[in-house]
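Sequence in, structure out.
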Amino acid sequence: MTRKKIRKKSTDSTGQGNANGKTAGSPAREPAESGGTGNIDKGGPAEFPVVGIGASAGGLEAMVELFRRMPADTGMAFVVVTHQHTGHVSMLPGLLAHETAMPVSEASNDMRVEPNHVYVAPAGAHLALLGGVLEDMEPDPDMTPHLPIDYFFRSLADDQRDHAICIVLSGTGTDGTLGLRAVKAESGMAMVQEPTSAKYAGMPASAISTGLADFVLPPAEMPEQLAAYARGTYLATGREPRTVPHEPLQKIFVLLRNRTGHDFSAYKANTIRRRIERRMNLHQITTPGDYVRYLMETPHEIDILFKELLISVTNFFRDADAWSALQNHLEGLIAACPDGHTLRAWVPGSATGEEAYSLAILLRECMTRLERPLDVQIFATDLDSTAIETARAGYYPDGIAVDVGAKRLERFFEREDNGFRVRKEIREMLIFAPQNVIKDPPFTRLDILSCRNLLIYLDAALQKKLLPIFHYALKPGGLLFLGPSETIGGFDELFDSLDRHWKIFRRLESVGTAQAMPEFPAFVPLPREVAKPRGIAAVPRIAAVVERMLMNRFAPASVVINDRNEVLYIHGHTGAYLEPAQGEPHNDLLEMAREGLRIELAAALRESSVKDKNVRKNAVRVKTNGGYAEVDLAISRLREPENVRGLVLVTFGPTSPAEPAPAAEPAETGGEGDDKRVAQLERELRYLNESHQTTREELETSNEELKATNEELQSTNEELQSTNEELETSKEEMQSLNEELTTVNAELQSKLDELSQTSDDMQNLLNATNIATLFLDDELRIKRYTERAEALVHLRPADVGRPISDLASNLKPDTIVADCRRVLKTLAYREAEVETVDGSYYLMRIMPYRTAGNVIDGLVLTFVDISRVHAGEAARDYFESIVDTVREPLLVLDEKMRVISANRVYYNTFYSNAEETAGKEIYRVGGGTMDIPELRRLLEKILPKSTELNDYEVEFDLPGQGKRKFILNARRLRQGRNTPERILLAMEPVPKPRGDGKS
């Protein structure tokens, strides 16, 4: 299976190379509104949901349990991605095939996913999905760490959008966290294994920490919930888009505003409706009216819906080409800044801080390159306070390595646990704060304002109000950086376009805009009593709930505080117990407590918090109006109704009078004042003892927690982590294979039979070659031999294992042992002709025996019978001796008239030698002596027509001898059926006539 190379590419806001969606404070992006540059052809959602399942160490058990209970007709496709080394032969497809009736196969290139099928990613692969087709991508070797689950989840979100479903199962590390964010950004659904049910809770805990998981369940409960979600109308094929009517939508806006204080009525309605519809599908609610009632009955759902509408999903350097384009303009901006200038930037809708940190890193790189160190203040704001807290921490999972790159990761981040933390030099450049860009005042005197992919979620009217505010916030010449799908609309007089493709603008100063103040949008909520739409009972205020609760309890003077001891509500007359402290006004209960009450009250609050129970203190002595009074103190933790859960009720009341004690005789010493003083000291001592005991318990608890933390840190050692996961995976696979031992044993027996057959075939092949072969080990003991070898060495089957030196051979002389030892010593093969006692000749080869691991494990001896060849060579030598005795020049030619050989008389007659003659055409030998027309005619025209030529007279001009005549005789020689013809040419010299006329 071939793999495709991963190519990093710049994509739009929906690009897979960067996590999809972004911007807390912005509703989730609809697929139709995703925008982008439009230059990428994407497959779009399939007609059925595609479920990505990510697992690592301990994930096999979870997957077995999941598929064992999964119906075979859910209509969904399942793609399993795990952590395995490249080259590892995975047995996972076979194991899962035993647990489900669905077909299970290993994913490969160009494989289209089908419903009710399971696909398992190959070991070491980065699997991607494009147009519903799986692609096996070759991981970048420079990309570390390798996070195949994040990679596939991102691709799944980009390709399938709201039809994407991701499930994170047991495993260590943080792989899958960023991919889950991408799935949620595309309105997909996310499931996570309950950490207590996971063998390794690292991956599930990291995914849950995002706050984006729709369901946190044990694997056994996932199939039922997954099937119910797939049956809902949200993913129904060919459905009509559900439209939430205006009236229920407005009611939902009111509930959101009353609960969170934020108004979403200015956001794009289609996007809001899509998110509401998804929440309805999760709860199997069919009508908007029923969902409104569900929100009223379950305020916690309002908080979840609020987070759904705020996409806290972004990533570092999204749209890499856009940041490269911005870099050029930043360098010009920095170069123009005067010395000592403080460069100010604002990133509204910064989500979890990736974009803000990207801007800080880019500024730092530009300043380093230009050698212009400047003070930098980057204000990063967002509506979601939870996202701001994440950004402040500056800690991100391993998956950011894909977006940041190895060089920036090493330069600007520090490795910490299973992630990376931004270095101090970058963190100090940023200031994070919660802010509602719609109604809160903007930052001003800015050099840079980066607001990417926020405006696309707001309606046109609000965009027209925000752009003048951005213009007002920037300095003349300041830069405005928008997302690829955003524009400045009709405000060309406010901004000059520097890069229309990547939406980089410069602030213009015009007469019409310099003097006019922009209209700041102010969405001030109406009083809640007025803002209630018909048909909705307003969400009860805390004060009303507390009053009703206290009336039901007939409570005396009381206060309600939060976990920071801040007073939220006061009931009754508390002046005898509380009084405002001196200095600046504050709301801390302990600061307001009167003398004598503070110590007991602090102890009671601490005990109630530590033990999570109600606490009562009787007869607490409190100083009031110059005297002392005894007070009963009660601490109650409120658990219902839901909107006051977590608050604490503190109740004060006078101590009930006790029965009067009988009169006692006055003591000889002391008095009533001394007794009260002793009682007070005893109470203080008792409080000190209790405080000491509580402190000791807290210290012991802290020590235990610290010890546990140290153990966890040791167990998450990075170097052992990867090996641990692989060992655990192998162990789980082996445990599952134990159930199939019978089948495996049968397969092994079949393999043994095949091996035996192969051995027999090899033995027969060796014997059929008619080559004598001996196999020796490194101590020259016989391991195997062919039948033909028995003619050379006296061998019997019982001789296997004996040294060859113990056996006699038919060779003369017998040098086999010495030759073998020489080859073992030098590792250079030996080849020689050897003769047997019966006169046969063999070509002996001795070669080292190399195993598959390139280890020398003995020798191989082969003996090829060359007796016939040897006899032919002897005959040839005999023939050449006869030719050399002939007293006439003889030549042997091939069919192309090249000289193959000549006798000694020829060389003497024509003053030539073998080097000048052999291999050359006859017309070119002897300096062209034989290049005469008559000879050509004889050899090329006459000879081919006849097998011989007789008594043809030819005259040659010989050097130093003049012209001489020769009588030529030629014969065509046929050596065999498959051998080329040869020509034997004899040249008989004609004697020169004598002076007396006699020859």
